[in-house]
Amino acid sequence: MFTGIVEELGEVVAIENLGDSSRFRLRGPVVTEDAKHGDSIAVNGVCLTVVDTADGEFTADVMAETLNRSSLGALAPGSRVNLERPMALGGRLGGHLVQGHVDGTGTLVERTPAEHWELVKVALPAALSRYVVEKGSITVDGVSLTVVDAGDDYFTISLIPTTLALTTLGIKKVGDPVNLEVDVLAKYVERLLGRGSDDLRDLDDIKEMDR
């Protein structure tokens, strides 16, 4: 589980094509200082498992499913990436609950600079738009952000100087893809509401059988 508060702006060192998967080597001295084999690190919001670490770098295997559902397949050596270690139990939850399970990709379609911040518009698949609400939370390339405006096929976010300086969102260009993870609580609520009446009837039937 992550919080969407990026710890480090890392870099892709090398990518080895393994046919139906790829092995990434990434540089991240901060996130690797206590990392070991089997640990998780979020890369642009995608939860990856550490294979090994050495000299401030780590490797991770990326399966076809992940390459198909995220923007990691578009990365190349030299690409900058947002890195975050899992949250520690008992620590502060600075962003919101983030699983590192990407729901889909969006496209950065507009950047509007202001004096001290920037408004960014992101197009997203229609299937995800119902989970995005004004003032709600969304994860964009692993960054926990508050939605300013939510439309049928887009949303906007405001980026403060810290986010612009310390994450890849400061260097993304119009037309670039971004990984999106919607609030998992919204998906659970939708699932429960859709099945709620049937489940309650099932529970009543079980109670009757137990009597």
Structure in words:
The mean pLDDT is about 90. It is built from four helices and twelve strands; from the N terminus they run βββββαβββαβββαβα. It has helices spanning about 65-70, 125-130, 160-165, 185-210; strands spanning about 10-15, 20-25, 40-45, 45-55, 55-65, 80-85, 105-115, 120-125, 135-140, 145-150, 155-160, 175-180. With about 210 residues, the chain is α+β, with helices and mostly antiparallel strands. The longest helix is centred in the C-terminal third of the chain and has 27 residues, at about 185-210. The strands form two sheets. The protein has a six-stranded antiparallel beta barrel. Strands 7-8-11-10-9-12 form a six-stranded antiparallel barrel.
Strand line-up across the major sheet: 1-2-5-4-3-6
Structural class: alpha+beta
- Separate helix tally: 4
Q: How is the main sheet built?
A: 6 strands, antiparallel, barrel
What would you call the shape?
globular
Q: How would you state the average pLDDT, rounded? A: 89
Q: Report how far the terminal alpha carbons are from each other.
A: 41 Å
Helix content: 10-25%
What's the multimeric state?
single chain
| Order of secondary-structure elements | EEEEEHEEEHEEEHEH
